[in-house]
Amino acid sequence: MKPDDEAEIQAIIKKVRRIELKTRGLVNGGIAGRYHSSFKGEGLDFEDLREYQHGDEVRSIDWNVTARIGTPFIKNFSEEREMSVFLIVDVSDSMDFGSVELSKRELAAEIAAVFAFSAIQNRDKVGLILFSGDVNLCLPPRGGPGQGLRIIREILHQRSEGTVTTATHALRSLSNVARRRALAILISDFLFELRSETVRSASARHDLVAVQVSDPAERELPAAGWLNLRDPETGQHREINTSDRALRQAYATERQRWQSDVDVFFRRHAIDLLKAGTESDYLPALRSFFRRRVAARS
Fold first, then answer.
1. Alpha-carbon radius of gyration of the chain
2. How far apart are CA 46 and CA 144, in angstroms?
3. 3-state SS, residue 17
4. Which domain holds residue 238?
């Protein structure tokens, strides 16, 4: 093993440990309970029979048992809790960008870990699909803390494949590997073309949630003089003068227009969109999201 490779592996292990400690703390601090309240399983499990009492719904009466015994009995059901959760994470080159403490990839790994450990604590199984130009990796749903650790490690370790990023193949893979309705968390910066037919098909079969990660230097160009910028998707370089106020304003206007298009896309397809930045705490956004889900279920 080359020294550079060993150093990279040690750096990844250190990041995995940090993310595990942070996200486990959030999960144990109440996020797992909010997750449990926000998402439901595939249906209802029959528990037992009991005598009808005043106020019970008539439609719950088991007429076969009632006719046999001569006394009204109703069926008790409980929500079937276990479900499959798929984390669908963008690992294209643009996700490696970060102008502050975290890169977008590291932020994606943290948010994925929160969902993974919350699901595992609630006895749900978690799978992982990584994508860039194609599907890089597909892990079948499993439970246990080892699965959560592997998910973090794979998100941090997997490299981009291909030059044109698309979520199309990943969402099609979801439909192939998830035979029953699943919770699917799509995590990306969405710096690629969003295709309605693929997203519509996935959201019709599964509970699809989108999480957008971004960096402040992407949302607003810093006034830092001449910069040599490289497009991570194409490798093309371009020099720009970020001291030019008109240039920064034109960039901000175009970025806002693009973000508005992303917002409208997910709203049109009735898909929840969470936003998280590398410079800020994502916990308030998660809590707000869980509150909206609980309110919708109520």
1. 23
2. 26
3. helix
4. 3-39+82-297
Which helix (H) or strand (E) is 259 found in, with range?
Answer: helix 245-268
pLDDT in tens, 99-153: 998 999 999 999 999 999 999 988 899 999 999 989 999 999 999 989 999 999 9
Closest CA to 110 of 150, 146, 155, 143: 155
Residues 208 and 271 in one domain: yes
Alpha carbon distance 198, 52 (integer Å): 48
Question: Do 101 and 54 have their domain in common?
Answer: no
Kind of pairing between the strands at 44-51 and 125-131: unpaired
Q: Distance of CA 118 to CAs 31, 92, 196, 261, Å?
A: 7, 26, 30, 31
* Token pair recorded at residue 122: 């609630």
Q: Give CA–CA dist 52/19, Å, rounded.
A: 51
43 falls in which pLDDT band (50, 70, 90)?
very low
Domain co-membership, 244 together with 211: yes
Q: How far, in Å, CA of 298 to CA of 292, rounded? A: 10
So what's the pLDDT on residue 179? 82
| pLDDT more than 90, % of the chain | 53
Residue 45's DSSP bridge partners are 78
**Cα angle: 164, vertex 167, 170; to 5 degrees:** 120
Q: Estimate to the nearest angstrom the gap between the alpha carbon of 4 and the chain centroid.
A: 31
- Whether residue 31 is found in the same domain as residue 65: no
Residues 55 and 142 placed together within one structural domain of the fold: no
- pLDDT, residue 76, reads 61
pLDDT at residue 17 above 50?
yes
For residue 239, what is the enclosing H or E element? Answer: strand 237-241
C-alpha to C-alpha distance for 36 and 122, rounded to whole angstroms = 7
CA–CA gap between residue 221 and residue 208 (Å, rounded)? 32
